[in-house]
UniProtKB/TrEMBL annotation:
Residues annotated as domain EamA: 20-150
Organism: Artemisia annua (Sweet wormwood)
Membrane topology: Multi-pass membrane protein
Compartments (UniProt record): Membrane
Protein name: WAT1-related protein
InterPro entries with a match to the protein in the record: EamA_dom, EmrE-like, WAT1-related
Length: 251
């Protein structure tokens, strides 16, 4: 096998597989970090606000540099409203995920993440963005994969180990599983909505900017209402700060 063929094999087979492993490791790492931070008493609403705040701070220079010498493409108010609703969906997804993690474990959260492509497929079909042909192996594979993902999530939620459903620990596990399922349903809904928005307004950086600004406003308002104690706004350790920085990538 020549050098060129090896290179094609690497980019076609090895690199995508390695990327998927890295994404899963980053997902598990983020879940584990937040679970550790939650033990220290971090408020989920304040935590989410800090994540949106840092995300917006990192994004702002990109927008300034990109449109320093060119004008910002005009955007209709209706598009701004849709992007704002998208930010609400993503914010609720984050809140459901963080609270669900407090009730359950990083393991369950990582398992439930497999619901995201299943929910996305169902919603894409519902909004006529995905077509199903029962005689097509591709469509059948998607349907079977969706059923397996949802079934696995249900089993993981209802079974947390040797303890039975009558215990309070198991009830917390179920509550966490339901919240995590809600997280990935909202995430899938947000992805479909984002695709719809980009079809009518394709300036992705501007969409992300409006999304970040709207999300920051929603997260700040919710944090002010739900965490009126000054102590709740303090990042009590370096571990919590590292977790906030790490979670910015999930926006």
């Amino acid at each position: 096998m020549g050098v060129e063929e090896r290179g094609k094999l690497f980019y076609k087979d090895v690199l995508p597989f390695a990327a998927m492993i890295m994404i899963e490791l980053m997902l598990v790492g983020g879940n584990t970090l937040f679970k550790s931070a939650s033990v220290e008493g971090i408020n989920s609403y304040v935590f989410t606000f800090y994540v949106f705040l840092l995300g917006f701070i990192f994004l702002l220079p990109c927008l300034i540099i990109n449109y320093r010498s060119t004008s910002i493409p005009p955007i209709k108010f209706s598009i701004v409203g849709k992007i704002a609703m998208l930010s609400v969906l993503m914010y609720l997804s984050q809140i459901f995920g963080y609270i669900g993690l407090k009730y359950s474990s990083p393991t369950l959260s990582s398992i439930m993440s497999n619901l995201s492509p299943a929910f996305t497929f169902v919603l894409a079909f519902f909004f006529r963005m995905e077509k199903i042909h029962l005689r097509s192996y591709t469509s059948l594979a998607k349907i079977i994969g969706t059923i397996i993902s949802i079934s696995g999530a249900v089993i993981a939620t209802l079974y947390s180990g040797p303890s039975l459903l009558s215990s309070s620990i198991s009830m917390n596990w179920i509550i966490g599983g339901v919240l995590l399922a809600g997280q990935y349903f909202l995430l899938a809904f947000a992805l479909v909505a984002q695709a719809k928005i980009l079809q009518v307004y394709s300036v992705d950086l501007m969409v992300v900017f409006v999304f970040g600004l709207s999300g920051l406003f929603v997260a700040g308002l919710a944090a002010l209402v739900m965490a009126n104690d000054v102590e709740a706004w303090k990042l009590k350790s370096n571990a919590v700060l590292i977790t906030v920085l790490y979670m910015v990538r999930r926006l």
